[in-house]
Design a protein that fits this description.
With 394 residues, the protein is an alpha+beta fold. Helices cover 17% and strands 41% of the residues. The chain has three domains: 152 residues, DNA Polymerase III, Chain A, domain 2; 111 residues, Roll (DNA Polymerase III, Chain A, domain 2), CATH 3.10.150; 112 residues, DNA Polymerase III, subunit A, domain 2 (DNA Polymerase III, Chain A, domain 2), CATH 3.10.150.10. It has eight helices and 27 strands. A hairpin with a 2-residue loop joins strand 22 and strand 23.
């Protein structure tokens, strides 16, 4: 393999795939980047076994940079803005096709220390050692091939020959909001992720930790598609970072997400996620809705929860006469805050402050609305395409 690539572009690709690489993986190839040069394109891949990510750049990549135009005396006197023009950068040249694995941490450190925008040569010798040369900086490094890292053990990335489904434009904000109720308890593997459900042109994302439920919905173009998946918390983290625009179902037991440069293949988990539809449907039967300014509620909870003990986080709420009083007590200390609300009811309740803050910090709405359902002992927050359910304390 031999290529010539712009150092900034190379570092961008390494930065995209590096987060899923483990430096302590028991399988040597999972500690490596797999670099592959093929006809007119170059790819960098990494895998944690259940996640496999590949970033690709082509010789025709549209990377541009600004170049100053010579300014005339007249334009300088008139105080006009400095003239610039965009020029295309030749970011990649494939000289010889090939494939090689190299230790991820070491290779990323070498490239990141080059700095600037230089032309970097990546070339393998007959022993599969990777030779990194930066002509502009007069720098050279050789990464010795690790005999234990068998490139044939790297998970194969297979793009299925199926219809590509476009994701909602706000898919990443949907993920960020839906994940607020992902379970953090290590023993609850069945709740440590997001449940995806596709039906009748709608995509719903649901999380639950037995104290909170969050469901966010969006529309997709394919109205005939019907399926369900469960994706781990690590997968969701990578999707938020990657910002995919479409997905494909497959290969077997996998989902493949894509954007312009990056492909992420996610291994699906066998999971018995609970059926939460009955609770979410109760949230559609809203009555006696309490309306409050989001920032005022958030600031009040932040203030009052100063005395909330970590092992039994709790603050009390009282709603009466169009006001909400929040307070917390610890030994002889007490915090208290009052805010205005628009409420048709009077109500006393207690809740873990983090439950409210998780949701309030994930949205930017000016107002929030919630109501109580005493039959199931739940508090329902309602907003467009979102239902957030909290269990109050006794």
């Amino acid at each position: 393999m031999e290529i010539l690539i712009d150092s900034d572009v190379l570092l961008e690709g390494l930065t995209r795939v590096k987060p899923i690489v483990s430096s302590k993986g028991l399988v040597p190839i999972l500690n490596c980047f797999v670099l592959e040069a093929r006809e007119k394109e170059f790819s960098i891949s990494a895998s944690s076994d259940d996640l496999t990510i590949s970033w690709t750049v082509g010789e025709d990549a549209e990377y541009v940079e600004k170049q100053k135009k010579p300014s005339t005396k007249e334009s300088s006197e008139e105080g006009s803005e400095e003239n610039t023009e965009s020029i295309r950068k030749d970011v990649l040249k494939i000289k010889e096709e090939g494939r090689v694995a190299t230790l991820a941490s070491r290779f990323h450190e070498i490239v990141s220390k080059l700095g600037g925008s230089y032309k970097v040569s990546l070339k393998t010798d007959e022993d599969q050692n990777l030779i990194v040369t930066c002509e502009n900086a007069d720098a050279k490094a050789t990464l010795t091939h690790d005999a234990a890292a068998d490139i044939d053990d790297f998970p194969k990335i297979e793009i299925p020959d199926v219809e590509e489904v476009n994701l909602p434009e706000d898919f990443v904000p949907m993920l960020k909001l839906a994940q607020v109720a992902i379970c953090e308890i290590e023993s609850r593997f069945d709740l440590k992720g997001l449940h995806f459900k596709i039906d009748s042109g709608h995509l719903s994302l649901t999380s639950c930790d037995n104290k909170k439920i969050c469901r966010v919905t969006g529309e997709i173009e394919n109205s005939k598609l019907k399926d369900e998946f469960f994706l781990s918390r690590d997968s969701i983290r990578e999707l938020i970072r990657m910002r995919p625009t479409s997905f494909l179902i497959g290969p077997k037991n996998h989902l493949t997400f894509k954007n312009i440069t990056t492909t992420l293949t996610v291994q699906l988990l066998k999971n018995d996620f609970p059926d939460l539809d009955k609770y979410v449907k109760l949230g559609e039967q809203s009555s006696n809705v309490v309306e409050v300014d989001r920032k005022s509620l958030k600031d009040a909870i932040d203030w009052v929860s100063i005395l909330s003990e970590s092992f039994d986080s709790r603050i009390d709420f009282e709603i009466a006469d169009q006001r909400m009083t929040l307070f917390s007590e610890l030994n002889t200390s007490k915090t208290k805050r009052k805010i205005k609300v628009n409420s048709p009811i009077e109500k006393d309740f207690a809740c873990n402050p983090d439950y409210f803050l998780d949701f309030l910090n994930a949205i930017d709405d000016k107002k929030v609305e919630f109501f109580f359902n005493d039959e199931v002992n739940k508090i329902f927050f309602k907003r467009p395409r979102t239902t957030f359910i909290v269990t109050p304390k006794k």
